Amino acid sequence: MALPGAEFQGWISDAACGWNNARPGPEAKDCAVKCVRQGWAPVFVQDGRMDAFKLADKAPAMKFVGEHVAVTGELKGDVLSVKSIRPSPAPKPAPKSSPKSKK
């Protein structure tokens, strides 16, 4: 099923680590950038998902590797055709619930 002109929120990661680098922090970004420089393709990981989508054209995503973005494009299967891409604030992590203390 194709989703034309839809906007997707997520991370530009690398094909080697995929969703593992789709998170905030310098470790994830540094790893994604290093892997892309070593030849791994950049991929898009949508917020809330663990699968990585291939990019039909990698060039627009190259300056966003390791960053959270909003992508407008068309998704066909596991390939995302990017029409536009821009930085987007990463979602705030859900608060961790503290265990109830027993008295």
Unreliable spans = none
- Rg, nearest Å: 15 Å
Percent range for helical residues? 10-25%
For the residues shown, what is the average pLDDT?
Answer: 89
Number of helices, counting only DSSP H or I runs of 4 residues or more: 1
- So what's the oligomer here? single chain
Strand content: 35-45%
Q: What structural category do the secondary elements indicate?
A: mainly beta
How would you sum up this structure, described in words?
The chain is mainly beta and 103 residues long. The protein has one domain. 12% of the residues lie in helices and 39% in strands. It contains one helix and five strands; from the N terminus they run βαββββ. A five-stranded mixed barrel has the order 1-2-3-5-4. Strand 4 (68-76) and strand 5 (79-87) form a beta hairpin.
Task: Kindly list the characteristics that best describe this protein.
103 residues, mainly beta, 5-stranded mixed β-barrel, 1 helix, globular
How do the helices and strands line up, and which of them pair or pack?
Elements: E1 2-14, H1 26-37, E2 42-46, E3 52-55, E4 68-76, E5 79-87
Parallel strand pairs: 3-5
Antiparallel strand pairs: 1-2, 1-4, 2-3, 4-5
Task: Briefly say what this structure is.
With 103 residues, this protein is mainly β. It is built from 1 helix and 5 strands, in the order βαββββ.
